[in-house]
Amino acid sequence: MLKPLCALLALAIGVSASAVPQSPPPPPPGQGLPPPPPAQGPPPPAQGPPPPAQGPAHPFSAQGPPPQSPPPPPPPAGGIDPMSPDPYYHPLSDFDFQSINLALNQEWIELDLFHHGLAMFSVEEFEKAGLNAEDRYLIQFMAEQELGHAILLTNILGERAAKQCKYQYPFKTVREFVDFCQKLTRFGESGVYGFLEHLDSRAAANLLLQSITTEARQQQIFRQFEGLFPMPVWFEAGITQSMAWTLLAPYLVSCPAENPRIEWQNFPALNILNNPDATPLYKTGIPGNDTTPAITHNRTIPLSYPGREVHFEWELPGKKVSYNDSYITTTKAGEPKFVVWVSQLNITYTPLTNIKGQSGSTIQPGGRVFGDNTAPIVNGTMFVAITDQDIHVTPFNISFLNDHIVAGPALYQSG
Ligand SMILES: *[C@@H]1O[C@H](CO)[C@@H](O)[C@H](O)[C@H]1NC(C)=O
Ligand SMILES: *[C@@H]1O[C@H](CO)[C@@H](O)[C@H](O)[C@H]1NC(C)=O
Ligand SMILES: *[C@@H]1O[C@H](CO)[C@@H](O)[C@H](O)[C@H]1NC(C)=O
Ligand SMILES: *[C@@H]1O[C@H](CO)[C@@H](O)[C@H](O)[C@H]1NC(C)=O
Ligand SMILES: *[C@@H]1O[C@H](CO)[C@@H](O)[C@H](O)[C@H]1NC(C)=O
Ligand SMILES: *[C@@H]1O[C@H](CO)[C@@H](O)[C@H](O)[C@H]1NC(C)=O
């Protein structure tokens, strides 16, 4: 499978100009800004009265709108000029390269994972889990989307771009495969939201965003395949590159020697001893209990709730991890004191209690994103980590949290 893939990739890189636009069409003279949205202006000419049948062949000529059109409104002031500086669809810094190369490693594992799951289980096993031929084709199509994303990011990064690796997976059943897919795509998506707005190359960020919105759809579909409520949050959280790398690293077994070293920090691993488990299959038809694949299921019996005690165990730094054992876990944090819950727009802390060596507990927090009658903060597939301080960070400056991570993050299956 790998050979034809490489050939395809080489071919695609050869015609990279088509996948990564080298320069968009020039803006109209004297205007750097895109045209205003039509809804705010007068109706565009195409919606106006039809041209006389006997009129000139092309009444809307290059000279502009037909004479009967009033002038369009001037574009609102401000915004980033798309041509100044010239858009550059490639990394403009090490930060850009390392961020996008991490995302590329994520796309590669997803491509392998979706194929792997389809090949690993029999048609009968998929059918028993409630996934029919059309569902399996959707997973196949998702693998093809990953190929597209890998081609795009390879074109953005150029020759040094990471190649595909060999992977290991923790699942033995179709349900566990689906659960792993919804978790892996969760940190793939959140990992990009954490850095997208900090990239130096806005042009590359634009293209990456258009891939990651596809990944967001995949995550939701895997939740549906698992019989979960498809989107129990109002906002999708962002995490740092080091957090995403910590979550991804264990599944990479060996990578080509020429792959660029991933320069993000790898935190000590965190294990949730009583993580809610969404994998059991209940074909009961009872709302709140039934977990067969569906567009949506009410979760009247939620997987978790505020006040639930959660137990953790974590590793000490200095452990070799990831492909070819070539990375080592590190931390800059002091003593473990808090658990941080990263969900929606919120970064919430609870005290870590019952600390004994590398184990401890906490209580799942309540709280709603915008107060009473709004979405509960803790829901869906989200992130928890052990920290030494409860510093105030927002989704935009969450990278300050890196220095305070004792261990983690881990994915908490709160809903
Ligand atoms: C990792 O190990 C594989 C298999 O032994 C080898 O081919 C590859 O070059 C190694 N990669 C690195 C980064 O050392
Ligand atoms: C759903 O029903 C099954 C089978 O009756 C039962 O074992 C399980 O505990 C129920 N799950 C929940 C969350 O109530
Ligand atoms: C689903 O949950 C909503 C919100 O709790 C509730 O209003 C609705 O009646 C439930 N529907 C079913 C079929 O359980
Ligand atoms: C998560 O959201 C679902 C859907 O709105 C809701 O039924 C469930 O109670 C929520 N879970 C928690 C832990 O709040
Ligand atoms: C969650 O984050 C939003 C956006 O920053 C903020 O307005 C809200 O107060 C936070 N909610 C809580 C309970 O802290
Ligand atoms: C992150 O940003 C918020 C407000 O934007 C600020 O209050 C907070 O101090 C910042 N955190 C750090 C660690 O600088």
TrEMBL record:
Highest taxon of source: Eukaryota
Keywords recorded for this protein, A-Z: Signal
Region spans: Disordered: 18-85
Biased composition (Pro residues): 22-54, 64-77
Signal sequence coordinates: 1-17
Annotated InterPro entries: Rds1
Protein name: Rds1 protein
Taxonomic source organism: Panaeolus cyanescens
